[in-house]
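Chapter summary example.
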Amino acid sequence: MKYIIAAICVTFFGCASNSGVVPMGNNTYMVSRQAASGFSGMGTLKAEAMKEAYNQCQKSGKSVEVIEAVDAKPPYIFGNFPKTEIRFKCVSEK
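The structure predicted for these 94 residues follows.
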């Protein structure tokens, strides 16, 4: 019985996913965050991804310019958990 309950929990809750900052060339980067379940809020995921973007650009003394933000659409079931992907550039401050 314990193994059945454990298997159900793993199926429903899965693992959270974080890409880290991924260089895409031409001073452009991508970062993504995905929740481990459908019960997490999108706001927290997006805030964490933006913090990573800002940290990346701060290393070179630059600012973040968001090129595109793509979010998963509800309903958050059957593996379609909250997810955000942000593409950005590090640009010099004006």
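To summarize the output: The beta strands are 17-18, 22-25, 28-34, 63-71, 83-91.
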